[in-house]
UniProtKB/TrEMBL annotation:
The gene is htpG. It is found in: Cytoplasm. HAMAP family: HSP90. Molecular chaperone. Has ATPase activity. This is Chaperone protein HtpG.
Amino acid sequence: ETRTETHGFQTEVKQLLHLMIHSLYSNKDIFLRELISNASDAAEKLRFEALSNGSLYENDGDLKISISFDKEAKTLTIEDNGIGMSRDEVIEHLGTIAKSGTSQFLSQLTGDQSKDSQLIGQFGVGFYSSFIVADQVEVFTRKAGLPAAEGVHWVSEGEGEFSIGDVEKEGRGTRIVLHLKEGEESFADGFALRGLVRKYSDHISIPVVMQKEATPTFDEEGEEEKDKAVELEDETVNSATALWTRSKSDITDEEYQEFYKHISHDFGNPLTWAHNRVEGNMEYTSLLFVPERAPYDLWNREAPRGLKLYVQRVFIMDQADEFLPLYLRFMKGVIDTKDLSLNVSREILQKDANVDKLRSALTKRVLDMLIKLGKNDPEKYASFWKEFGQVLKEGPAEDYANREKILKLMRFSSTHTGSEEQNVSLDDYISRMPEGQDKIYFVVADNYNTAKNSPHLEIFRKKGIEVLLMTDRIDDWMMSQLHNYDEKAFQDVTKGQLDLDDAQTEEEKKVQEEAAKELSGLVERLKASLADKVADVRITTRLTDSPACLVLGEQDMGLQMRQIMEAAGQ
Ligand code: ADP
Ligand code: MG
């Protein structure tokens, strides 16, 4: 070896390695899934690059992943003939963490094993998970297209540093050798490994091969023939077909779940998914997943999002964010289409009319899937709403065309339930509207208690009219964009004239008129003395206990918005 250098890991890598080894101890077999997942990504990247440069195959076009082990040496080897890495790429990819917000993420970890493993799961640990079971990891790799002499040998004990040297490597791609820790020898076992491959990596679209276990042969005396040379063949352990191309009825939930983990880099299960093949005008297959939990970087504008794009089963790109609107950025999945060309680029995606059609079809698909979930499984939907409801609230402004559908997905706290939980849909609200009510009443406040105790609600309570209580930061802004749902206007109870007259009895009207006459003098005096503070003073029937309340004009900005603008210095 020449040019052997020692490099320190980026601080974040060191922290992650340390935390991961401790918190993922009870899930240690996931390292195999991560390494196979990377090998599969590498194969797909090669196939993509080779579309424009066929020589990258170097006469070896059968892409595969091989797993082998050595019981004596206590090693486990995962090898692929994918794209490989150059020296610089090795240093970057296996020495740093390229995810934005990593240090912030790491600072959230508590040291509590079960909490941390949840968090780390959403973060995704990838390659570094090999150090859960190995006390030394070696990587031999050569980038497709580079000469054999430009192979790279990377070694690390997973502590502070790694060393990197040159190595002659005939075959293109990456071989990873794990030197198993004391106590982890059980991974150097054909039966166990086959089980793990089937469990975690069955959906990988290229073959995962292992050497056939030699069946012992016996001589005439019945003695096992230990020394007889046996021809050892490879056999494919997984199904080796792209999961989404298979028919729905042949795919188990477990297979969908593992596939989700592969494409999402999430350790948790998806909450639900939809797998559809569309033929005719447009031809595509989509497999869309709703995660169970929000990722750590849901609110990071830079965070990767979007679907994995395939054209006629050839992987084209990750994070194709043209296929879903921003307010559905939490969705994961795959879109495989015949309606785009194999040499489509990000720039072309932004202009292609077929992309718009796919985007609107997929958006509807997701919204319908969520509406169905809300109907069929309210409990799951409640958990979805907790994780992603706030993001969905960006929807009505971003996606005018789907407003009604998005509104159907909303859940609010309400005076009807008396609980802070956001679990009342607009349809629930409407179904409870008494005869004569034609508006959807709501109040926006900083928090639930303020909303619930708002003096504006007194008259509604008295009349038994339900009011939605909105307390999320985004609510005021969202409601300022909305006019109606199901042909019923939204009405902020703190704004303008409330025409609850329909709901008023004749007697109440009489009482009000008399009061107005009697109090006209007071009203005039109040108007005069508050002239520079309020626009008007009116007698009201809104209040039952409080003597007075402030009301905003119909066109005024809501209180939350005012506070946000004031905080921003406007
Ligand atoms: P992720 O897969 O989420 O990117 P990983 O930690 O699993 O994160 O891998 C980090 C990076 O290392 C990959 O993005 C890839 O660039 C590179 N890499 C890992 N394994 C391989 C492999 N077998 N072949 C080529 N590149 C690889
Ligand atoms: Mg990975």
